[in-house]
Structures are given as structure tokens and as C-alpha cells.
Design brief:
With 351 residues, this protein is mainly alpha-helical. The protein contains 18 helices and no strands.
């Protein structure tokens, strides 16, 4: 292993636990034609470690970290929003919630996010465009919202550290999505070249792979973070939310991706809670069911500011014509984008 990785214990752990044969199998398709990676060549093992395409297979990582990092269990417990029949048991769900709350307390997120502080050319409007594009790419590739939320989390942390030229913003974004997809999806097998096509070939597969590892270095390989998707999945499961309510809640949650500076000051669990509450209210259901109150640690004063901002995004969504609006206007998502937002007088309260 290249000595430059000695400061990254997670990366060392990946390579120590995955056999050399598994590494070769993981990177073979992406690197078999590369000028700097020649499988079967004696020089292959001499190549710098940062040129490997680190294959962050979630199942492998869970097996590797068993007994060392219990927080990874939440990846196994979180149910898919559309498959409530496979929901975990109540005890599993509560355990997963506890772990996810702990991840949130550890806070890998940017503590004081203000794009203009370190960025000389990237502005909020550019992040709006990138987030909207990422949702479209994920939709085209059949990737769930968990991938998009993790991608944006990674991107935000990267931009907080690195002053990125505007022409490189899309490259960083697509590299983060490539990593997030491998981390969140057990069955994800796409090659980097597919994502290069999504950029209209503005960047090559090799550039995406190089940026992938560069981004991982910057965020110190911290991928196991609590996102809005994680909390929303658990809240929806705990409340036995109807499918249409789940679809609407995810629509509202994804709208927050387009308004970074407005929502990043709210914790993921607050955004998830506000999204599900508003979905219930919009569909004429109790906005604060007992099951949600039992597992949510927030008071109405914590959720209300986020709820009101979320309602503004809900009202404006039909005019923005974003990819998110188009996505949730389809039959596959029950056309929930056509729903009418609740009144301000319905702002959340535990009373």
C-alpha cells in the first residue's frame, strides 16, 4: 500500500481486509484498458494506490467492519421506501434509529455552510443546477434518493474545503455520485464510463476515477453519515405511512436539495420529520401521529421553522420545473407533485 495512505485508517482497513484478488476483480473492467493499469502485468502492484478505483461495496464493508464499527448496521436495517412489506422488526428499527441519531450527533456535515466563504466561482445557483442534474442522473440510472442525499453530503463537505473552479464542479459531483452509488447500492455494477456519458463526455472515465479518490481523501473517507433519507425511511416505517404519503414525503425532502443554504442549517432528522409531517397533512392525515411523536426527539419549535421553509419550496416547485418536479409528476411516483400545500395555520405542534 502506498505510504501516502498511512494517514487514512479507513483506506488502510479497506485494503487490509479485501484480498488482492477481490481488488483486481473490482477494478478490472474500469482499468483493463487504462494506460496506467495493466492487469496481469508485473508492474501492476507497483502502481500508486490512489489510482485504484476503490470499490466501496456496502456488504463487503459491513463484513469487514463487523465488531469494529457498529454504526454500519444502520445500512442493513434501513428499509427501501417502496418495500414496506420487508420492513424490519420494531426492535431493529429502534436500534437503527439509535445508531442513526448517534451518527447525526457525530456530525460529519459542514458545521457552518456558506458556499461563498471558500468558493471563488461556485454560487448557490450553480449548486441548484448540479443538484437538479444529479437527481435526473440518479433517476435515469434507477438509483434511489439515498444515493442523491449522500452525494450532496459528500459534495458539500468537499466544497467546504476545496476552492473548486466552476468548470470542475460537475466532475466533483459525478465522482461523488459514483462513490455514493457503490456505497448505498449492493447491486450497483455500472462503470465510470457510463457516468462520463452523463456529462456529455466533458470528462473521461479516468478523470472521474481520479476525482473519486481525491474527493474521498478530502472528506477523509467518511461516508457513513446520517442523511435525510436515512431518517425518512425509518420515520415512514415507524408510522406505517401509506405509499402515497411516502412518495410525497420524499418529494418534499428532495426539494430541500435545491435550497442548500436554507436547509443545511437544519439537522437531517428535522428535515425528515418536517417532510413526513407535511406529507401527512397534505393528504388529510394526522400530521403528528403518536408513533412519530414516540420516536422523534424534537419539539414543535424545532420543526416549525424547517416546516415553514419547506412549505415555501413546496409552493414554488411547480414554477421551477425542476427534474424533481418532473420526476414526482409521473405515475410511478403517484403524481404527488400536483398536491396542494397545506395552510400555514397547519404548522406543526405537539399540542
Amino acid at each position: 500500500i502506498n505510504a501516502e495512505y498511512m494517514g487514512h485508517s479507513e483506506c488502510l482497513f479497506f485494503f487490509a481486509k479485501i484480498s488482492f484478488e477481490s481488488c483486481l476483480e473490482s477494478v478490472q473492467e474500469d482499468y483493463q484498458s487504462s494506460s496506467y493499469w495493466s492487469l496481469g502485468s508485473a508492474s501492476a502492484v507497483q502502481q500508486p494506490a490512489h489510482q485504484l478505483n476503490i470499490h466501496l461495496d456496502c456488504a463487503l464493508k459491513r463484513r469487514m467492519m463487523t465488531g469494529c464499527c457498529h454504526v454500519l448496521a444502520k445500512k442493513a436495517l434501513l428499509p427501501a421506501a417502496a418495500t414496506m412489506s420487508d420492513a424490519p422488526t420494531q426492535q431493529d428499527m429502534l436500534s437503527s434509529l439509535e445508531v442513526t441519531y448517534e451518527l447525526e450527533r457525530q456530525s460529519y456535515r459542514v458545521p457552518n455552510p456558506s458556499v461563498g466563504v471558500v468558493q471563488s466561482s461556485v454560487r448557490p445557483k450553480h449548486l441548484w443546477e448540479v443538484a437538479d442534474w444529479l437527481v435526473e442522473v440518479a433517476w435515469d440510472h434507477g438509483l434511489g434518493p439515498g444515493v442523491v442525499f449522500l452525494t450532496m453530503d459528500m459534495l458539500e463537505r468537499y466544497l467546504h474545503v476545496v476552492d473548486t473552479p466552476l468548470q470542475r464542479l460537475q466532475l466533483v459531483a459525478v465522482a461523488c455520485m459514483f462513490t455514493a452509488a457503490k456505497y448505498e447500492r449492493l447491486d450497483f455494477m455500472a462503470r465510470a464510463s457510463r457516468f462520463a456519458i452523463e456529462t456529455d463526455n466533458a470528462f473521461t472515465a479516468a478523470e472521474i476515477l481520479e476525482m473519486e479518490v481525491n474527493a474521498l481523501r478530502v472528506i477523509k473517507f467518511k461516508l457513513n453519515v446520517a442523511t435525510v433519507h436515512d431518517f425518512l425511511s425509518l420515520y415512514a416505517c415507524a408510522t406505517s405511512a401509506p405509499v402515497r404519503a411516502q412518495a410525497l414525503a420524499y418529494y418534499l425532502a428532495e426539494l430541500t436539495l435545491l435550497q442548500h443554504q436554507g436547509f443545511r442549517k437544519h439537522k437531517p432528522s428535522v428535515v425528515a420529520c418536517a417532510s413526513l409531517m407535511m406529507a401527512f397533512q397534505t393528504l388529510g392525515l394526522p400530521g403528528w401521529p403518536e408513533k412519530l411523536a414516540a420516536i422523534c426527539p424534537w419539539q414543535s419549535c424545532d420543526v416549525a421553522p424547517c416546516w415553514k421553509r419547506l412549505r415555501e419550496s413546496f409552493c414554488q416547485a411547480s414554477r421551477s420545473k425542476s427534474s424533481i418536479y418532473e420526476k414526482y409528476s409521473t405515475d410511478g411516483y403517484h403524481n404527488v407533485a400536483s398536491e396542494v400545500p397545506p395552510s400555514l395555520k397547519d404548522a406543526p405542534s405537539r399540542d
